[in-house]
Amino acid sequence: MSRLSGRIALVTGASRGIGAAVAKRFAAEGAHLVLVARTVGGLEETDDAIQKISGQSATLVPMDLRDYDKIDQLGHALYERFGKLDVVVGNAGALEALGPVAQYDPKLWSRVMDLNVTANYRLIRSMDPLLRASGTGRAIFVTSAAAKAPQHYWMPYGASKAALEMIVKTYAMEVAGSSVRVNLIDPGVVATKLRTQAFPGEDPKKITQPDQVTERFVELAEAGCTKHGELVLAQ
């Protein structure tokens, strides 16, 4: 038996990078994937890879997570189709730009906070009943070392990840008496588009690739996972 056999897993930011890598690994472990991202072409590429891996198609959901009403609509649609959700991976995130606090563009600030913080809160709000219905619901949210200590020019991203950690840890406390297990994961330094934005001169081939950090995601998504309210390092 594969480790995620028969489990229904929603992955945000699944069109590329860590989200796509996690989706493909979950498919290899037997899960049915619900893939969310803005880029239709990227979602279709991930789905093509999943079909080659498992012989099954994913459920594709092209949407901008900043359109919060659509998150609620997705939750309702998943209830109508599956009646439950076994795994949520809140991976989608934005950097937008680096810059000093006093000069940071308010519009970019809003975009970072809207996606990295509010969209994940809305995801929890909409998917919580489905995770509870699973009996072995698992929620995994991607954070960053940027949440831990101030760094020049990283204020919006760092603040958003610190806020996300507070939301997720609080949610974990509140569902501690249920069958739902909730954790954070820090993938570390990984070759992603966000990383390239921040470090354009870096050779992505010389750092960890997205498919190299998927094992911890599988561990946290398994029905037998006992970790709860923890921050897990992927490497």
TrEMBL record:
Pfam families: adh_short (PF00106). GO terms for molecular function: oxidoreductase activity. It comes from the Bacteria. Its EC number is 1.1.1.-. InterPro entries: NAD(P)-bd_dom_sf, Sc_DH/Rdtase_CS, SDR_fam. It is an enzyme of class 1 (oxidoreductase). Keywords: Aromatic hydrocarbons catabolism, NAD, Oxidoreductase. The keyword Oxidoreductase applies. Belongs to the short-chain dehydrogenases/reductases (SDR) family. This is Short-chain dehydrogenase/reductase. It comes from Azospirillum lipoferum (strain 4B).
